[in-house]
Amino acid sequence: MQEETTVLSNEQAGVGCRRLRLGAPGVASVARPGQFVHVRVPALDPGAMRRPISICDADRASGVLTLLFKLVGRGTEALARVAPGDRVDILGPLGTGFPMPEAADVALVGGGYGVAPLYFLAKTLLGAPSAPRIALFVGGRSAPDILLAEDFSALGVDVHVATQDGSLGAHGLVTAPLDQWLNETLADARHATDARHATDARVAICACGPAPMLRALDERALRLGLPAWLSLDRRMACGVGACLGCVQRVRSGRGGETTLARVCVDGPMFPAGKIVWD
Ligand SMILES: Cc1cc2nc3c(=O)[nH]c(=O)nc-3n(C[C@H](O)[C@H](O)[C@H](O)COP(=O)(O)OP(=O)(O)OC[C@H]3O[C@@H](n4cnc5c(N)ncnc54)[C@H](O)[C@@H]3O)c2cc1C
Ligand code: FES
Question: What topology is assigned to 2-94 in CATH?
């Protein structure tokens, strides 16, 4: 749907990052974790492309939609200047959401602003009747790239931080603490069930972030036989499947056939083993 929203607040949320709260009762009432909205940035000319931003939170009762965005260029810098009371036109919710994993333990893995859709997912999972245990693995180049860690902690999520320069959390890639957690969690699960095959359904991975991180997770999920869903980040034009500007080669069958998927409508979520990495 296309919705004319009202800016409720636009606050700094870390270095070079903003948290935008919009009065968007239509989109907020149907949004699912992992979906995004395509935002028309008010200060740009009306013919300018919309910018895709993940839904970081959606509150059905109040109709409030929260977006978290990093200032990287003309569009996001202009969006950073909208003020309470301004009107912002959005299209959404778009894309496939994360399926709700039926696992006892869920690892959420985010790189940079990739934590935004994971926050909505964590909140939704924790609100379900049989809520899983959730661990968040968040990585970035340095401390300012680590976003929302405290917000996840406040939800009761077990948060693990890694930075490549060691300025916050573990020194190195986010896959190091994840590997340790996977070893421990899978060992516990095997112990509990005493049946190796039964562990598969007990641990799941949901991730959003840069392609090298997603590829590393894809390999791990396939090697360990774990269900995983990876949210791809692509530059987008139409956002609704019409322009083919966001295509990704994916596996289409067991015989090694491949086809092109449109990330905006067939994704951005793809299960482990689906994406053909360049
Ligand atoms: C499904 C989806 C969800 C997204 N969710 C979020 C989110 O929650 N928060 C957030 O901050 N950003 C998110 N993004 C990325 C966001 O759309 C871009 O950062 C934004 O469109 C850049 O617009 P701009 O005009 O500021 O930058 P531009 O001037 O267009 O580009 C500035 C720089 O950013 C790079 N860039 C632009 N778009 C992307 C992209 N999609 N991925 C990687 N690099 C890009 C360009 O190559 C260039 O180097 C998402 C993208 C997609 C596809
Ligand atoms: S952005 Fe146009 S088809 Fe995906």
Answer: Elongation Factor Tu (Ef-tu); domain 3 (2.40.30)
Give domain limits for the chain. Answer: 2-94, 105-231, 234-278
170 touches 143 (CB < 8 A) = no
Are 50 and 38 contacting, i.e. CB atoms less than 8 angstroms apart? yes
The structure's pTM equals 0.95
CATH fold, domain 105-231, is Rossmann fold (3.40.50)
Dump pLDDT digits (tens) for 165-217.
Answer: 999 999 999 999 999 999 999 988 777 765 554 545 689 999 999 999 999 99
* Pocket-testing residue among 49, 51, 69, 72, ligand 1, by greatest number of atoms within 8 A of Cβ: 72
**Ligand 2 atom showing the smallest separation from residue 246 Cα:** 4
Count of all residues that appear for the chain in the document:
278
Which of 17, 40, 53 has most ligand 1 atoms within 8 Å of CB, for mutation? 53
**Contacts for 41-49 with beta carbons within 8 Å, 24 or more apart?**
41/75, 41/78, 41/79, 41/88, 42/78, 42/82, 42/86, 42/87, 42/88, 42/89, 43/78, 43/81, 43/82, 44/74, 44/75, 44/78, 48/75, 49/75, 49/236, 49/237
Pocket (CB within 6 angstroms of ligand 1) = 36, 51-54, 68-70, 72-76, 113, 116, 233-236, 268
Which ligand has the minimum distance to the alpha carbon of residue 70? 1
